Amino acid sequence: MISQDSNKKKTVAVIGSGMAGLVSVYLIQQDRKKRYEVEMFETQNQLSLDSASHTVTSDEDPSSSYRIDVPMRAFDDGFHLNLKRMYDHLGVQYTSPKFVYPLSTVSTTDNSRKSPPHFIHSSSNHQVPPIKPERCGYGQWILRTLYLAVCYFWFTACCFLIEPIPATIDRDDESFQVYLDRIALPKYFIGNYLLPLMSAVTTCSHDELLGFPAIDAIDYARRTYRQPHYTVVGGVQNVQAKIACAPSVRLGATVTKVEHIGSRLRVTWIDSRSTETCSKEFDHVVMAVTPNVVGAIYEPLRTTLSSIPVISGESVVHYDRSTLPDCGRSIRKFSRDVRFSPDQPQLLYICSNSSATEAIHEHPGSVLVTSFPIAPIDPAKVIHRARLARVLRTPKSRRVVNRIFSGDFEQTQQEDKTWRNGTGNVWLAGAWCWDGMVLLEGCIVSAMRVAAGLDVEVPWQ
Ligand SMILES: Cc1cc2nc3c(=O)[nH]c(=O)nc-3n(C[C@H](O)[C@H](O)[C@H](O)COP(=O)(O)OP(=O)(O)OC[C@H]3O[C@@H](n4cnc5c(N)ncnc54)[C@H](O)[C@@H]3O)c2cc1C
């Protein structure tokens, strides 16, 4: 006979409503046996996946508007396998814009001065030969293109043929810096082409990127080699509308503590409207927040997660065209087209100094979005700003993450005392909760892991 207790639904608190939190809730709600009752907590006053995005309305036709995803939520076939499967399952529409990347240099003495582009790269090399920068002579352009082709070929061949040195018990993973030295890639190519292009994806300083485990960068380069990029038609608001299905959502609820009370978990939060401190007990807690937040609210992981670096930066939506490098006529065609159709090649200006890179994405209507700006932007021309957190990878943080998410915690716990995902019914989800670059794919993989831990089937698997 089934007791009344076993019929009672288990309660689950999901903290954070970014992609990882929303997908975790969506999956738990798919449980065929309807065993779970989910409650979501979000510190902001709206769901967070789409909260930093911005809508621009055309001056000529106020009924026509365009949604700009902030941050950019691009994905591709080779890397974002589960994200794409989920989008297909949900019927989310996406498009495959081509990107054109003018690469230019920001002056070290005056941040507002940018050189005209020294190279114009195209995503998946869809422009062959590459577009000639206006101020570059034909001879110089041919020599530069040949030099880059050789370096690019060498780097790509190494990615597929030379494995990064893995960690052992007493040695960390090889860093990206050490790998690049080992394959003898020219410093000029690294500083002027490779790091600017890659750090536009990782939005961190060049030094931070060089400190990543080499396997992350190499795996990313392999998986995205010659793969098309995609963006969601109408922006991630359309994804959020399809997956936001928590029956109970507490907005403006900042969780301050998660603690074990016997076999249950107590979640304590501050309600931003009433400023009251409230608490409630649950059977499971999913923390879909960055590792610094996990450390702040959940004592057992405080020390372990302090070794995972988290930085924050800004994405700025604006009209300040003086921040663009002078490209002359070389890319005007794309610039003009991009104003009228989002399906045309899109311009993503990559502007670097010796230590960092800013990416300026030109959207229809001449709206610019600068991620992690280096050059000053005229405040009078700013229409929206968003502060964004970015979790970084290091050989040490990779070791920590892999240990937390490795294997079956019940089996492994007997030999070692490391906290493992699922210990005491506490689960972690987020872009950082997997072994790879901290991008949307990590959100989906970790949410699927939560579902597996709760014995819920993943519909797109
Ligand atoms: C500039 C930039 C560009 C990017 N571009 C891409 C891209 O093109 N493609 C790609 O795949 N990835 C991209 N990424 C990465 C990707 O967007 C993020 O890694 C991903 O969105 C993180 O999602 P998440 O659910 O793990 O965490 P988050 O989105 O950080 O969600 C965590 C949520 O928890 C909430 N929260 C925090 N503390 C508390 C608390 N105490 N109580 C309650 N709620 C709390 C926060 O408000 C937040 O909403 C980009 C990132 C940046 C910064």
UniProtKB/TrEMBL annotation:
GO molecular function: oxidoreductase activity
SUPFAM superfamilies xrefs: FAD/NAD(P)-binding domain
UniProt keyword DNA damage, yes or no: no
Sequence intervals crossing the membrane: 12-28, 141-163
Keywords for this protein: Membrane, Transmembrane, Transmembrane helix
PANTHER family in alphabetical order: AMINE OXIDASE DOMAIN-CONTAINING PROTEIN, PROTOPORPHYRINOGEN OXIDASE
Listed name of the protein: Amine oxidase domain-containing protein
Organism field: Aspergillus avenaceus
